[in-house]
Design brief:
Distance between the termini: 64 Å
Shape: globular
Largest sheet: 7 strands, mixed
Number of helices: 16
CATH class of the largest domain: Alpha Beta
Radius of gyration: 24 Å
CATH superfamily of the largest domain: Type I PLP-dependent aspartate aminotransferase-like (Major domain)
Helix content: 40-55%
Oligomer: single chain
Number of strands: 11
Strand content: 5-15%
CATH architecture of the largest domain: 3-Layer(aba) Sandwich
Order of helices and strands: HHHHHHEHEHEHEHEEHEHHHEEHEEH
Length: 483
Amino acid sequence: MAGGEVKKDPANLELSPAAMQAMGEEVVRRATHYMQALADMPSVGDYTGIEALCRAMREKTPEEGSPLESLLDPLFEEWIPRSFNAAGPGYLGYIPAGGVYTAALADFISDATNRYTGVWNAAPALVQLEANALDWMRDWMEFPPEARGLFTTGGSMAMFNAIACARERLLGNAIRAGTLYVSSQSHHSIVKAAKLAGIAHDRVRLIDVDASFCMRVDALERAIAADRRAGLKPFMVFSTAGTTNTGAVDPMDEVADLAAREDLWHHVDGAYGGFFHMVPKLRPLLGGLPRADSLTLDPHKGLFLPFGTGALLVREGEALRALHSSTAGYLPEKQDEFYDPQQYGPDLSRDFPGLRIWLTLKFYGAARYRAALGEKRELAVHAAEEIAKIPGIVLDAPPQLSLFAFHLESKGLNTIEAQNAATRKLMQRVTQRGKVMLTGAMVGERYLGRVCVLSFRTRSDRIETCVRHIAEETAALLAEAAR
């Protein structure tokens, strides 16, 4: 297919309508077959000889084209299967989501039509769809009407823009004096984003957490006071609405009170847990979130969208615009009535991330999303209750949202090193059984096993399998330790 039309005129890259139709149908056929088989695929593909495979895949630039089928065969049959099955129902490690099919269709439409959405004037109606999606998120989070935001590639870039916004508002040119505060359980991307925004590592303060792994506000207050005495300028504090390690939700109301007294910018990292706030009955779990000056959201987590879909909301939209607004002789004249992406974000050339969210929400409706998120919370609570009953399991962090953490203990595992090793083996053995993928995390000196329920494909049957496999492998490990 790649040879015929192109060889007649090497400079012509156009394909006939019939060729495009056939290529599209072939890709959709393979993709739908792949998704249909997700539930039966192992949670982690076969990594045997993966290094040798990757070395063998290295190749020089192809001078001649190849038929599409010859490119799709190894992609679907060899390379995609040899990876984490992050789209499957058994993906309970890290923070899962799944990737809804409507978003794939939206990306195809976006790429095929190739409309430029960086500037409002270039595609006003399409940019309005993106503005609508941001407004829906603003309303779910109970932010004020003047709040504005932007779509990013993920939480890391949302964090970077939030820090730059706060730095510009509260520090001006005195960047070196600024200090920023995060809990010891905050996501590592915050420190990286701070460095990119000009806040060096020695100006980032790690605040202790309590027994529930939540930020200690008293420790935060002392750190702020110490920096002020040292002549520094505290300017920003991060709360987390669901940490990656244990799912802990920081006391956002208390942090917001302190931030208001100390004139600090309060950012909430809601990359994992923020979208639970769209479910009214779950909002008490995230008390204080609507008071944030800015908020990270990851639609590729809580809205089940494909990877590469992040978002930032800023309470005072003009603060975000003040950071990014610019003009040039070749750009259209600014207008103030409609949302203009290049006035609120760093990108001028960009893809069309809003379409995947708009199309998906219009197709499913918010009510079905609320039902799905509520179910994930219920499944996590049920799983935690059942796993806590297993002899040898100690539940360290019950699910505040849909993630919980635990470790193994027994008479035969009488040191923390032995408990860590056994807990790590438990995660590995359950994952090797192929039905669910579990991961753990070092929290202080202890290794904790984790279960995170967030994929839209994870239903009660897979949770029951997870509980059963953990119970069986725990019993085996404890028996080994007792010998």
